[in-house]
Amino acid sequence: MSSYNTFTDYELADLFKTGDRAAFTVIYQRYWKKIFVIAAKRLGDAHMAEEIVQNMFMRFWEKRELLNIDLSVKAYLYKCVHNDTLNYLKHEKVKARYQEHAAFSLNYSEPASHKAELNELEWKLQEALKDLPEQCRTIFQMSRFEELKYREIAEQLGLSIKTIENQMGKALRILRLKLVDFLALILIGIIFYKDFLN
To answer: Which class is 2-87 in CATH?
Structure first.
């Protein structure tokens, strides 16, 4: 593998896409620390930065045959970590807003019976999301929890807008079936997920 260290990024990328683990290892060693530093600065959280970078490289390996690296490997990885950290920050912002709204609703306006229903719905929703196919779940979460437009999701995932629309439709159909017992609760709008099935 030591000879691989003399290879250019383009040579390594060609080998990597064929499943060459040694080429992947060199790319990883060449860029892991640089990518980590970028993520840590943006997030202000070294632990989360490490997790995001590790997950990014894992996806990089798993999807190697589908990758179209028209930029340099370095530029491609920098773009990936930029998108991943941005998505994480957006997700945290949305989650915090929902949690604040939920806390306010539970503490000041919801009767005890509704609190129990909310807790059950929260659990049911999480379970229903786990049952969605991976791509379907990712697209749904990016749309409803991160508030990304279909065009933005399509660009980040490298899919067509039509595919995003189809996957969202599929996700909504599945969730409606799984959460049918809670539709009334959702529709009267007493919880912070009140519009996720619109």
So the answer is: mainly alpha
Q: Fill in the amino acid letter for 9.
A: D
SS3 state of residue 70:
coil
**CATH assignment of 110-187, among 2.60.40.10, 2.70.70.10, 3.40.50.1440, 1.10.10.10:** 1.10.10.10
Which position has the token pair 């009267």?
188
Which tokens hold the place of 44?
A: 């202000």
Instruction: Kindly give the residue spans of alpha helices, DSSP state H, lying in the chain.
Output: 9-17, 21-43, 46-62, 73-108, 112-131, 134-144, 150-157, 161-178, 183-187
Q: What amino acid is encoded at 173 in this protein?
A: R
C-alpha span between 82 and 140 (Å, rounded): 21
What are the pLDDT digits (tens) for 111-153?
Answer: 555 566 666 667 777 777 788 888 888 888 888 777 888 888 8
In this structure, what token pair is assigned to residue 114?
Answer: 């509704």
Residues carrying CATH 1.10.1740.10, the chain: 2-87
Q: Are the CB atoms for 166 and 140 separated by under 8 Å?
A: no
**pLDDT-based confidence at residue 106 (cuts at 50, 70, 90):** low
Q: How far out from the chain centre does Cα 26 lie?
A: 26
195: three-class secondary structure by DSSP = coil
Mean predicted confidence (pLDDT) in 8-14: 81
Three-state secondary structure call for residue 117: helix
